[in-house]
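re the bet — no i am not wrong, look at it urself. input seq straight from the record:
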Amino acid sequence: MLNLSSISIAFGGLQVLRDVNLIFPERGIFGLIGPNGAGKTTVFNLITGLLVPSAGEIEFMGQRLNGILPHRITRSGIARTFQNIRIFKEMTLIENVLVALGGRPSYGAASVLFPWAAYREAERRDAEAARGLLARVGLAEKSERRAGALSYGEQRRLEIARALATEPKLLLLDEPAAGMNNVEKRQLVDEILKLNDSGLSILIIDHDMGVIMGLCHEITVLNFGGVIAHGTPDEIRGNPAVIEAYLGRDELPQSEPEVVLP
């Protein structure tokens, strides 16, 4: 589904990524982890067109993404959330999702003959779609509330709903569990599993090893801009190079035990 071949990028004299190769097949949940500054978010920015690699190729569903504008990459089927939440806090939840739905064509041929009726019908369909997306992340009952009044975890879920509005095939989640309490993390894990069961492929960055180890089918580890390990959660958990990368500890950092999935 998504292939990164020999990707490198430098900012000035700083080499951020060096000869990175990643392959993500369809319908999986894949983790991208590593210490701060390893290059994880840079990978997301390259995939979504916010940055252009200085070397290498990025391919999604057979299409080369190098140099493609971000909005066209979104239309090709890739959506993302951000490490720092980016929602319209003064707007309601449903209005936030409707903004994302605004990029989808809602009018048919009848709009030429009956423009006002077509507009009202499109408006009704979009509102229905927005409520459905909020329901997918457990926020349907709060659709008319102001987004800024949500808890931190709920704002994260709203951002996921907005990303889903673009009808992606691949969803990139940048630290979705950051700042969440254990209850919110469990809700997030359940929602990500449901999204994957619906056919969506997911690539996730997070520092919470309980969430990563419990969710992901495969995990790639970056350190100093290069891949140091790739494998199943069990393989990564016992990899000496990975353990050393995480502060030289004898074991990987974990979240609270009740957050870890069996």
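see?? The longest helix spans residues 115-136. told u. also The chain has nine helices and ten strands. so pay up
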